[in-house]
């Protein structure tokens, strides 16, 4: 399968990029490929950031995740800005965007809802599904007249193991890069597990906790003293002294139907400032070497692993292109004053711990992927040439529609009416 190199989306390489022979050699015997990049808030050094919040103990506000880390020989308070799982999702989103734009070609499996009563969902691919190729969305869809899991391709994916990962390599290679677990299959979730080979994380270094303030003035001037009867479906009506509420209604203030002023509030320990943020991206080549493929030979298996490494590198350069706007008020750019070793240099880490700096840009990453897939195909391990398109089973569509109906009625997981 040919990877797109020359088109309206063609890229021009700058300088001498890593060549396929270097990638092959690294995959054969190296320890890892890594990159450390120092970042600053897009608003400039010292700008306030709002990293993700996580649930706290009952009755307490959500919190940022903080911990002390050893950096440069010192113990430094840090805050998590983007977890490994979130970074993996962002790389997958970047690959999906490249696929849909036409500048990248690689095997994919997608469920198309366009011909159903839930057509607004569009298409969901294995890059977007929470459990990747083993997600229940794919499991409960159909390939032609059979459930996907019962099709020849579906069965090959279910039977895949690290001792023969050929099916995943052929039909969904990104699941080998970012990790997948066949937890929805038989055996009570004892299906094959493929650990992620690439890990990336962003942390804020030398964190100082701040505060978050909030308020809202209502342009209609609605006062809090007005009584309102709110039904479980979200509808409401005004009450007066002689009006009785119905069984399913409860008396609320205007603010509970999103009207009226919101009094100023101050939440402590939310929002931070940091000296800088540090993104650490590591592709474990030792992890890739645990994967075996059929037909099996040294050159064939190394070539297939080199393809997976190239996919990870394309994901990295596409992530760089999409930017580091992680969430509202948590947006980064590279730190142009970063010291050597933290400027985003790509390093090939040898088995003895030594490392070599290599150059790689967007064009170089795409060229590596093209060379790697061609070499693997020549050794009997080609990719599937096109996206496998599934249709959601009628039960899955009905499940979506009933869930929407519950949501519109104000019911669902948090419904405590007992009905």
Q: Briefly, what is this?
A:
This protein is an alpha+beta fold and 419 residues long. Helices cover 27% and strands 27% of the residues. It has eleven helices and 21 strands.
Provide structural commentary.
The strands form 5 sheets. Strands 1, 2, 3, 10, 16, 17, 18, 19 and 20 form a 9-stranded antiparallel sheet that branches. A 5-stranded mixed sheet has the order 5-4-21-6-7. A 3-stranded antiparallel sheet has the order 13-12-14, with no helix packed on it. 27% of the residues lie in helices and 27% in strands. It has helices spanning 20-29, 84-101, 136-139, 152-158, 166-171, 174-178, 186-189, 285-288, 298-322, 362-378, 394-408; strands at residues 32-41, 66-71, 74-82, 109-112, 123-125, 141-143, 146-147, 180-181, 193-194, 198-205, 208-216, 228-230, 236-238, 250-252, 262-273, 276-284, 324-327, 330-334, 343-349, 355-358, 388-392. The chain starts with 19 loop residues before the first helix and ends in an 11-residue tail after the last helix. With 419 residues, the chain is α+β, with helices and mostly antiparallel strands. The protein is flat, with a radius of gyration of 26 Å. The longest helix has 25 residues, at 298-322.
């Amino acid at each position: 399968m040919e990877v797109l190199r020359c088109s309206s989306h063609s890229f021009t390489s700058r300088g001498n990029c890593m060549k396929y022979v270097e990638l092959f050699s690294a995959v054969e015997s190296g320890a890892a490929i890594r990159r450390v990049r120092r970042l600053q808030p897009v608003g400039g050094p010292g700008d306030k950031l709002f990293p993700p919040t996580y649930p706290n103990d009952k009755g307490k506000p959500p919190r940022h995740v903080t911990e002390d880390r050893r950096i440069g020989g010192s113990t430094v308070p840090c805050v998590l800005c983007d977890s490994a799982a979130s970074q993996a999702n962002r790389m997958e989103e970047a690959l999906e965007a490249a696929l849909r734009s036409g500048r990248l070609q690689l095997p994919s499996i997608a469920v198309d809802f366009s011909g159903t009563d839930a057509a607004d969902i569009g298409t969901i691919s294995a890059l977007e599904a929470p459990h990747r190729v083993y997600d229940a969305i794919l499991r409960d869809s159909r390939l032609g007249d059979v459930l996907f899991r019962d099709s020849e391709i579906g069965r090959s994916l279910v039977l895949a193991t690290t001792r023969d990962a050929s099916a995943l390599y052929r039909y969904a290679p990104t699941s080998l890069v970012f990790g997948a677990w066949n937890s929805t299959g038989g055996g009570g979730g004892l299906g094959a597990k493929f650990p992620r080979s690439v890990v990336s994380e962003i942390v804020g270094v030398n964190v100082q906790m701040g505060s978050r303030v909030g308020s809202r003035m209502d342009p209609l001037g609605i006062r809090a003293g007005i009584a309102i009867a709110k039904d479980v479906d979200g509808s409401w009506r005004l009450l007066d002294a002689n009006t009785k509420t119905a069984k399913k209604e409860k008396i609320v203030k205007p603010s509970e139907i999103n009207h009226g002023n919101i009094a100023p509030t101050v939440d402590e320990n939310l929002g931070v400032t940091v000296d800088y943020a540090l993104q650490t991206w590591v592709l474990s080549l030792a992890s890739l070497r645990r994967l075996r493929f059929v037909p099996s030979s040294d050159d064939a298996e190394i070539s297939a692993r080199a393809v997976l490494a190239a996919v990870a590198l394309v994901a990295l350069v596409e992530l760089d292109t999409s930017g580091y706007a992680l969430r509202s008020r948590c947006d980064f750019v590279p730190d142009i004053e970063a010291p050597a070793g933290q400027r985003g240099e790509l390093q090939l880490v040898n088995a003895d711990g030594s490392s070599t700096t290599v150059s790689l840009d967007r064009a170089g990453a795409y060229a590596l992927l093209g060379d790697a897939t061609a070499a693997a195909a020549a050794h009997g391990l080609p990719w599937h040439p096109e996206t496998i398109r599934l249709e959601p089973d009628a039960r899955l569509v009905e499940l979506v529609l009933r869930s929407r109906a519950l949501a519109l009625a104000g019911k669902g997981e948090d419904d405590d009416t007992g009905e």
